[in-house]
Amino acid sequence: MNHTNIKEALEWRYATKRYDKDKKISAPDWELLKESLRLAPSAYGIQPWQFFVIENPETREKLKAASWNQTQVTDASHYVVFIYKEKIDEAFIQKYIDEMSKLRNTPVESLDGLKNMLTQNLGKAPEEKIRVWSQRQAYIAMGFLLQTAALLKIDATPMEGFDPSAYDKILELEGSGWKTVATVALGYRHPEDAYQNLKKVRYPEDSVFKFIK
């Protein structure tokens, strides 16, 4: 894929408002979209997120009601809810250390320095600071998903217009240490979605770029 193709894909994408219920994302494309989430970067690489793929129609209807009845929730081919970790505790840090040890074939004891640093910077940090930090990490993953979808010419809608507490209740997250932060609907635009014909509104380069020399 060359520079022109990438720019065209970025120009093509928009936050789709109306999806074609009958068009579904192919299995190979969905696998790549999932990988874009799984391989997304996070601070320290610790991945304080989960991605709930809502396939059950009844659950989607409940989430739609908690999303002010936005039709993307039920009509899109796939609907992903982004969940973030409220607190980075010792068990979560150890899980990451164990996974690193296994994948890199490294003695777990050799990672004590990293573990201590994570405990100091994350495990002992104020809970409100960690909540905000975890949410930001989830949005990094969202960005990777949106760009991958655009390159595949798959429509995507990032959404914050919902009741997070209601989502947490519907998805049985209450008391789990995880909370909902955002969602993304994925699929194919309906031919009658008027938003696809609107000019993309972006400021010119000289308004958003400052080169410090």
Characterise the protein shown here.
With 213 residues, the chain is α+β, with helices and mostly antiparallel strands. It has one domain: 3-Layer(aba) Sandwich (NADH Oxidase). The chain is 46% helix and 13% strand. The chain has 9 helices and 4 strands; from the N terminus they run ααβααβαααβαβα. It has a 4-stranded antiparallel β-sheet with strand order 1-2-4-3, sandwiched between helices. α2 runs antiparallel to α7 (127-151) and α5 (90-103) packs antiparallel against α6 (112-123).
In terms of topology, how is this protein built?
Layout: H1 3-12, H2 27-38, E1 49-53, H3 57-65, H4 72-75, E2 78-85, H5 90-103, H6 112-123, H7 127-151, E3 155-159, H8 164-170, E4 178-187, H9 205-208
Antiparallel strand pairs: 1-2, 2-4, 3-4
Helix pairs in contact: 2-7, 5-6
Radius of gyration: 19 Å
Please estimate the helix content. 40-55%
Number of domains: 1
How far apart lie the N and C ends? 32 Å
Based on Cα principal axes, name the global outline. globular
In total, how many beta strands? 4
